[in-house]
């Protein structure tokens, strides 16, 4: 017998609903080059699916490859982090604002949930400016109950705060909600909040784990698949 529908479906944005992870990687690569660092696959865990502040800290940390290249005081370092984070945000916003395609199957899945009366929200680690640009552009007309950005919780992914906050807004037990994610950090966030997780990997592989269901594409996902995620031990 199939489990009843989720209390809510909580969608990640970048790499899950919209194909922006490549744009974020391009942004980080350009900013890193300006700091004297060539981004490689070794940097991916600190860039893909990470918040702006985390990526900025990583880029500052690897600039020049030795301690002498780092800002010399705490104030200098804070200023460098702020400048790098602002550059990442501004550049990424421009790329997203120019248009980010939906991931295959995203439009059909969202429409089916709306038709079935299953509530859903957007839970992103991107800044509010980027979330609003995507919602007004690629996701225009989608009836999200609400959107959460990195600016809306004290801590963002991989901490549990975003998904825990989303469940609270729905007045739902996190265990009755399904998070749809593509990245290790986003999956860790949903796991820590207590949500069932449907993982549709994009740029980085996600390890199997308790409460995680995997799909190759959103084209494989429907309400039945999401409901079955709640049964996974």
TL;DR of this structure?
With 233 residues, the chain is an alpha/beta fold. It is 41% helix and 9% strand.
Task: Give me the secondary-structure topology.
Blueprint: E1 8-11, H1 21-34, H2 52-62, H3 74-97, H4 106-116, E2 120-123, H5 128-136, E3 147-148, H6 161-169, E4 177-181, H7 184-193, E5 196-199, E6 212-214, H8 223-229
Largest sheet, spatial ordering of strands: 3-2-1-4-5-6
What spatial form do the alpha-carbon principal axes imply?
globular
Poorly predicted regions are 64-69
Please bin the fraction of helical residues.
40-55%
Quaternary state of this entry equals single chain
Which structural class should the secondary elements be placed in?
alpha/beta
- Most strands sheet: 6 strands, parallel
Q: Please state the average pLDDT score.
A: 90
- The total count of helices amounts to 8
Number of strands: 6
Beta-strand share of residues: 5-15%
- Cα radius of gyration in angstroms: 18 Å
How far from one another are the termini? Answer: 16 Å
SSE string, helix = H, strand = E? Answer: EHHHHEHEHEHEEH
Keywords:
alpha/beta, 233 residues
Can you describe this structure?
The structure is a single chain. The protein is an alpha/beta fold and 233 residues long. The chain contains eight helices and six strands, in the order E-H-H-H-H-E-H-E-H-E-H-E-E-H. A six-stranded parallel sheet has the order 3-2-1-4-5-6, sandwiched between helices. Helix 5 links the parallel strand 2 (120-123) and strand 3 (147-148). The radius of gyration is 18 Å and the shape is globular. The protein starts with 7 loop residues before the first strand and ends with a helix. Mean pLDDT is 90; it is low at 64-69.
């Amino acid at each position: 017998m199939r489990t009843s529908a989720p209390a809510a479906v909580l969608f990640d944005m970048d790499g899950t609903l919209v194909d922006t992870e490549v744009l974020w990687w391009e942004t980080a690569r350009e900013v890193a080059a300006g700091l004297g660092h060539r981004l490689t696959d070794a940097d991916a865990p600190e860039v893909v699916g990470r918040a702006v502040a985390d990526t900025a800290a990583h880029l500052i940390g690897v600039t020049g490859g030795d301690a002498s290249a780092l800002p010399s005081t705490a104030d200098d370092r804070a200023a460098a982090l702020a400048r790098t984070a602002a550059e990442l945000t501004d550049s990424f916003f421009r790329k997203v604002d120019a248009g980010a395609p939906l991931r295959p199957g995203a439009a059909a899945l969202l429409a089916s949930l709306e038709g079935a009366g299953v509530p859903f929200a957007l839970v992103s680690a991107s800044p509010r400016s980027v979330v609003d640009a995507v919602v007004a552009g690629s996701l225009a007309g989608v009836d999200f109950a609400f959107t959460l950005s990195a600016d809306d919780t004290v801590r963002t992914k991989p901490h549990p705060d975003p998904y825990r906050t989303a469940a609270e807004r729905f007045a739902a037990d996190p265990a009755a909600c399904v998070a749809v994610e593509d990245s290790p950090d986003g999956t860790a966030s949903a796991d820590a909040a207590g949500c069932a997780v449907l993982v549709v990997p994009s740029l980085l592989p996600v390890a199997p784990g308790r409460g995680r269901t995997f799909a190759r594409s959103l084209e494989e996902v429907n309400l039945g698949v999401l409901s079955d995620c709640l049964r996974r031990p």
